[in-house]
């Protein structure tokens, strides 16, 4: 296995060397943005936890529950992300064919791809969790050794969640198709919604909201499930109960060992079976014109526009890892929002209701920004070897740029507007906050699309043949940092601002409107700037 | 002795038989050319021979090892040059070749010697420390040939070997491949260029619609089909 690790390390070293020697400015920007974003997240966590501590006893309870909820959510997020990545790495990578043609045992290829998917799906959650724990250690005046020791708990935790993703990947690919699975999962959610009984005991008391009567809170704290083990381990460590803490660590390590030994023993066989199933050339399948395509073709839209839109939709629909992510993440948000009233969030005191409102806005924008990176950013690179067609076509580059912007912005803003409408309706917000959050979502979606498209044009790499390759590039990383920073800053400004006014029982409107206009102006200017830079660079690019 | 044996091989995509009852036997040191129109099943055959596709029916033996049950041992004897080869773009040429050498457990000193020898033969010595992403198409093709020769395979499978090469490159590859067959390496090459097949092949096989419709040396084919050139034979057999 060491030779594969050597190849990865060597490649990384060569990339860094190249950047350091030939692209000093880019290197500096990347290091700087990495530093600033880490610091920014740390400050945001620290400030947020400080705020909770300032609330007194209730704050401590929230922090405790927050730990459980955070690990619960991240556990499943990694599992979903891992299974999609493993699918991409196993069946959308040219390296696989190369490795299979070499005399390498299949279990090694399977383990290599497993570890690769673990690293790619887990590094951001790992950094986020370490920062969160570091913030907690700081406000609780604990030893910083706790941060270091928490990593020992986090690594097996990440491996276990990846292993769950591995099981999902194996079951789905063996017994279902991607399409059927996603539809089936959404169908289950709808059924669950209709058969589950709403809890009418709740009157909006925040302590009740955090009690084990709420199913998700109860689930996140179940002692026999792995997502609670890290929190329990860390809390026991903090309290000096080392033996109990070690017990949870032992649980984590033993479950990880079971997962790894399963992959070592069965991984090769499973991998080969699935490779043969999914490596059949796709051109043997047949595709027919769909109704939506006919409608677009017969619409009054300019022909060049509808043709490019049809092409972009087709590319999206024929990449299962793209549309399934779209459905899963927006679907989960949708499911959460339609349950808001069942959770009695609409009965909460204004201060909490306001926090939930803007956290919902923040979560929608986070998903939009994630899709900005995965779907919008790679669009220029994916023109790839066909870019000469784009350049030679009688349609100007400006028009094609416009088409990509309109197409992506409309999809993103439409889906996110529907979601924020549901959230606002369920929370029974007054008109002003409702309008404010809706417009933040729409302007935010347009801005994120323009940032991602601009940076995607600037960093376009026509050698890329798969969208993840573009996403994993330096340009993708910068886009990720910028989009995420934009979302965090937006959420931070509006949460703090509205919270400040609610606590002091002052009328919101005037100051918030002024800040809102400034935010809109900055968003538009930044969007235009990146569009301009990206477009200029794209025009200069040689094929 | 036959180094490659293929017995009653079948491969189906959906309802379409891409390889239909293929039987092949290739001797050590033999240069075998697979010809056929687009979609005849040539590339699929090569992919089956290297384990990239699983046959629906049939057996493949390489050096006596079944590809089904002793895949690793069989693959140690094989080199494969696909039409669009994969390279680790962010490795240098020398790093990539070292990687290949390690996979095949070649002794470090011997590996160094072989790498230097082939870099010299293929004219890549000057650019051995250049990243592969900066290589031109022709240079990439050459590095793939080196990667497949340094472990001294008994069988070399080549899919469309000369695409994008300049005349010097074509000449070099032809010369190297012919020399290798003299050293005992069997070569199975899939190509559309009939002239190359005529010049290099000891035996030719023409495939159409998944079936091997005719096989033999150029002289045998000419006798059998009673046509003038390989081109005439090819068009006569693959007329649709």
Q: How many DSSP E strands of chain B? A: 10
Give the integer mean of the pLDDT values of chain A.
Answer: 84
Q: Assess the beta-strand content of chain A as a share of residues.
A: under 5%
Proportion of residues in extended strands of chain B: 25-35%
Low-confidence stretches of chain B: none
What can you tell me about this protein's structure?
The complex is a heterodimer of chains A (543) and B (240). Chain A is an all-alpha fold. Chain A has helices at residues 2-22, 24-54, 57-91, 94-100, 106-139, 145-175, 178-195, 206-209, 215-221, 229-238, 242-278, 291-297, 303-317, 320-338, 350-376, 379-383, 387-392, 397-427, 431-458, 467-471, 474-503, 509-540. The model of chain A has no long low-confidence stretch (mean pLDDT 84). Chain B is 38% helix and 26% strand. In chain B, strands 6-7-8-3-9-10 form a 6-stranded mixed beta sheet, sandwiched between helices. Chain B has a 4-stranded antiparallel beta sheet with strand order 2-1-4-5. In chain B, strand 4 and strand 5 (65-66) form a beta hairpin. In chain B, helix 3 (93-103) runs parallel beside helix 5. The termini of chain B are far apart. The A-B interface holds A 3, 6-7, 10-12, 14-15, 18, 94-95, 97-98, 100-105, 276, 279-281, 284-285, 463 and B 13-14, 16, 50-54, 71-73, 75-76, 78, 80, 82, 84-86, 88-92, 95, 99-100, 102-104, 131, 133.
Q: What is the structure about, briefly put?
A:
The complex is a heterodimer of chains A (543) and B (240). Chain A contains 22 helices and no strands.
Topology (elements, then pairings):
The complex is a heterodimer of chains A (543) and B (240).
Chain A: H1 2-22, H2 24-54, H3 57-91, H4 94-100, H5 106-139, H6 145-175, H7 178-195, H8 206-209, H9 215-221, H10 229-238, H11 242-278, H12 291-297, H13 303-317, H14 320-338, H15 350-376, H16 379-383, H17 387-392, H18 397-427, H19 431-458, H20 467-471, H21 474-503, H22 509-540
Chain B: E1 2-13, E2 16-27, E3 31-35, H1 42-49, E4 57-62, E5 65-66, H2 71-75, E6 78-81, H3 93-103, H4 108-121, H5 137-149, E7 155-159, H6 167-182, E8 186-190, H7 194-200, E9 203-208, E10 211-216, H8 218-225, H9 230-237
Parallel strand pairs in B: 3-8, 3-9, 6-7, 7-8
Antiparallel strand pairs in B: 1-2, 1-4, 4-5, 9-10
């Amino acid at each position: 296995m060491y030779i594969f690790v050597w190849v990865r390390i060597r490649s990384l070293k060569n990339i860094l060397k190249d950047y350091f020697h030939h692209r000093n400015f880019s290197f500096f920007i990347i290091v700087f943005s990495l530093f600033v974003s880490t610091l920014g997240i740390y400050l945001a966590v620290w400030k947020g936890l400080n705020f909770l501590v300032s609330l007194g006893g209730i704050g401590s309870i929230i922090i405790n529950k927050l730990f459980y909820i955070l690990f619960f959510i991240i556990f499943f997020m990694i599992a979903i992300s891992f299974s999609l990545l493993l699918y991409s790495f196993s069946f959308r990578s040219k390296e696989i064919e190369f490795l299979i043609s070499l005399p390498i045992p299949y279990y090694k290829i399977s383990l290599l791809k497993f570890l690769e998917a673990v690293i790619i799906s887990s590094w951001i959650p790992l950094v986020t969790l370490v920062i969160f724990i570091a913030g907690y250690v700081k406000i609780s005046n604990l030893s910083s050794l706790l941060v270091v020791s928490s990593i020992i708990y986090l690594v097996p935790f990440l491996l276990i969640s990846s292993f769950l993703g591995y099981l999902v990947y194996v079951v789905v690919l063996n017994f279902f198709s991607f399409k059927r699975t996603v539809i089936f999962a959404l169908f289950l959610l709808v059924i669950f919604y209709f058969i589950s009984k709403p809890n009418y005991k709740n009157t909006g008391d925040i302590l009740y909201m955090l009690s084990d009567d709420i199913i998700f809170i109860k689930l996140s704290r179940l002692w026999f499930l792995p997502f609670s083990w890290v929190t329990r381990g860390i809390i026991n460590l903090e309290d000096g109960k080392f033996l109990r803490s070690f017990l949870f660590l032992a649980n984590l390590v033993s479950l990880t060992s079971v997962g790894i030994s399963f992959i070592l023993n069965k991984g090769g066989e499973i991998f080969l079976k699935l490779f043969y199933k999914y490596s059949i050339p796709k051109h043997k399948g047949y595709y027919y014109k769909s109704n939506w395509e006919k409608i677009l073709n017969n619409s009054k839209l300019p022909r060049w526009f509808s043709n490019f839109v049809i092409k972009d939709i087709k590319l999206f629909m024929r990449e299962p890892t793209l549309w399934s992510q779209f459905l899963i993440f927006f679907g989960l948000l949708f499911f959460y929002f339609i349950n808001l009233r069942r959770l009695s969030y609409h009965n909460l005191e204004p201060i909490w209701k306001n926090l939930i409102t803007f956290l919902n806005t923040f979560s929608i924008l986070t998903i939009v920004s994630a899709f900005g990176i995965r779907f919008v950013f790679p669009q220029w690179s994916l023109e790839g070897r066909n870019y000469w067609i784009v350049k030679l076509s009688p349609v100007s580059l400006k028009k094609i740029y416009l088409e990509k912007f309109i197409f992506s912005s409309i999809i993103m803003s439409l889906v996110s507007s529907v979601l924020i409408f549901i959230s606002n309706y369920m929370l029974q917000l007054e008109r002003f906050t409702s309008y404010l959050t809706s417009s933040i979502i729409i302007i935010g979606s347009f801005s994120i699309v323009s940032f991602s498209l601009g940076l995607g044009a600037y960093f376009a790499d026509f050698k890329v043949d798969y969208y993840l390759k573009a996403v994993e590039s330096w340009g993708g990383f910068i886009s990720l940092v910028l989009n995420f920073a934009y979302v965090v800053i937006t959420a931070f400004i509006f949460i703090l601002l509205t919270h400040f006014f609610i606590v002091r029982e002052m009328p919101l409107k005037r100051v918030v409107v002024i800040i809102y206009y400034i935010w809109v102006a900055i968003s538009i200017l930044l969007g235009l700037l990146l569009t301009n830079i990206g477009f200029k660079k794209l025009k200069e690019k040689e094929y | 002795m036959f180094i490659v044996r293929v017995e009653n091989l079948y491969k189906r995509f959906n309802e379409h038989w891409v390889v239909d009852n293929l039987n092949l036997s290739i001797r050590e040191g033999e240069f075998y050319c697979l010809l056929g129109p687009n979609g005849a099943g040539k590339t699929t055959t090569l992919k089956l021979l290297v384990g990239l596709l699983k046959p629906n029916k049939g057996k493949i033996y390489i050096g006596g090892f079944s590809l089904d049950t002793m895949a690793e041992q069989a693959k140690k004897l094989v080199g494969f040059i696909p039409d669009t080869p994969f390279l680790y773009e962010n490795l240098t040429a020398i790093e990539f070749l070292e990687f290949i050498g390690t996979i095949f457990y070649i002794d470090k000193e011997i590996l160094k010697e072989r790498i230097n020898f082939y870099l010299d033969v293929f004219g890549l010595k000057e650019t051995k420390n250049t990243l592969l992403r900066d290589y031109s198409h022709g240079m990439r093709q050459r590095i793939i040939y080196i990667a497949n020769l340094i472990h001294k395979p008994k069988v070399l499978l080549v899919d469309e070997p000369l695409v994008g090469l300049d005349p010097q490159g074509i000449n070099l590859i032809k010369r190297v491949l012919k020399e290798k067959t003299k050293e005992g390496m069997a070569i199975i090459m899939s190509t559309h260029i009939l002239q190359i097949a005529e010049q290099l092949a000891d035996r030719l096989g023409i495939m159409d619609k998944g079936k091997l419709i005719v096989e033999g040396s150029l002289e045998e084919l000419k006798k059998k089909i009673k046509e003038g050139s390989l081109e005439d034979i090819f068009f006569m057999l693959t007329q649709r």
